Amino acid sequence: MNNKTLFPPINEQMDLIKRGAVEIIPEEELVQKLEKSLKEQKPLNIKLGCDPTRPDLHLGHSVVLRKLAQFQQLGHQAILIIGDFTGMIGDPSGRNTSRPPLSLEEAHENGKSYFEQASKILDREKTKIVHNSEWLGKMSFADVIKLASKYTVARMLERDDFTKRYKGGIPISMHEILYPLAQAMDSVAIQSDVELGGTDQKFNLLVGRDIQREFGVTPQVILTMPLLVGTDGVEKMSKSYDNYIGINESPKDIYGKTLSIPDDLIQLYFELTTNVPNEKLRAISQELTNPEVNPRNLKRELARKLVSMYNSEEQAWEAEREFDNIFVKKGLPDNVSDFVIEPDINEIDILELIVKVNFAPTKSEARRLVQQGGVTIDGEKINDVKEMIKIESPKILKVGKRNFVRLIKN
């Protein structure tokens, strides 16, 4: 059989695999695995584990999912492990406290939502989905003791988050120490050749490599990807920091949030969150150093690209047109939704109104929005948190940069 039947040449594979990667440990073993794969015309098992603590995916999650998709493009087997069992433990990575555990039912439901969204990135038909309760749930206490005997407490405490908590006198529960071992058993169960993860997962991935060796399985190569910095340009992308761009968000939100990223993140976002070729990345790098090029134009291109990827090109151009109408021409969106106020209400407290139209979850959050100057009625800024809004004729309520609603009486 021709060696090019299933897989590209090794150098082409490595070029794509290394794009955006932080570390490949060890790189020479990956080359050996690829050479064997090419010779035998047998795909490698590429593992990505996810503990579905939250069902909503954002561009930060897409970074490692896109790397898994790239392995798929090269002809290898993508294996997505839904950590329904490990989700009941809670991944302690990067945590200074214990992570609240999930029930098995919650993990299953979140896992379904996770895969539905991940399918926007992965080839659904070529992705193997497994739940680690299939093997972890069958382990006896004797099995757990045998597994625990293969790793020392000293080595476990080498991980940064455990070290900091131990030195700081912050409790570390025994079940958290078992987490990396449980994740490692996933690698043993599926005989993973390569495991992917963010840089915060490096310790867990290395444990998997060690435990595979202990169980007589050829150790996996690990590949880590950077943690995407959020739209604030400071913290990693997270819903907790409200600096995220959700892949299921509306085209206008994806577009608008993308334009809010700092200029120094433009090239990184192109590299980690899109599929533009390397030649384009080099061109972007040159443009960013050219004082005659406005970085905003590159951000608009990035925003259109992201909307096209998760929605459509038509919606991308529509989102740009609407954005320009609101922010450039100081107009309003083409389709402002109506909110009907009950007929017996003639005026309403501004904080109650903001919560009522679902622009804030609580009055406390609504108060913060008003105090930050982010609330207007018909273009007039509301400064008083006790302001009473009269509902006599249709009014436009704007909260933040992108939330508009037309208030009308029934």
Describe this structure in words.
The chain has 410 residues and is α/β, with parallel strands linked by helices. The protein has three domains: 10-225, HUPs (Rossmann fold); 251-328, Tyrosyl-Transfer RNA Synthetase; 338-409, Structural Genomics Hypothetical 15.5 Kd Protein In mrcA-pckA Intergenic Region, Chain A (Roll), CATH 3.10.290.10. It is 44% helix and 14% strand. The protein has helices at 10-18, 27-40, 59-73, 104-118, 133-136, 141-148, 153-156, 160-167, 174-190, 202-214, 251-258, 266-273, 278-288, 295-310, 313-328, 350-356, 363-371, and strands at residues 23-25, 45-50, 77-82, 127-131, 194-198, 221-225, 338-341, 347-349, 375-377, 380-381, 388-390, 395-399, 403-409. It has a six-stranded mixed β-sheet, sandwiched between helices. Strand 9 and strand 10 (380-381) form a beta hairpin. Helix 9 (174-190) packs across helix 10 (202-214), helix 11 runs antiparallel to helix 14 and helix 14 packs across helix 15. The chain is globular. It starts with 9 loop residues before the first helix and ends with a strand.
* Multimerization status: single chain
Spatial arrangement of strands, main beta sheet:
1-6-5-2-3-4
Give the strand content: 5-15%
- State the secondary-structure class: alpha/beta
CATH superfamily of the largest domain: HUPs
Distance between the termini: 73 Å
Number of helices: 17
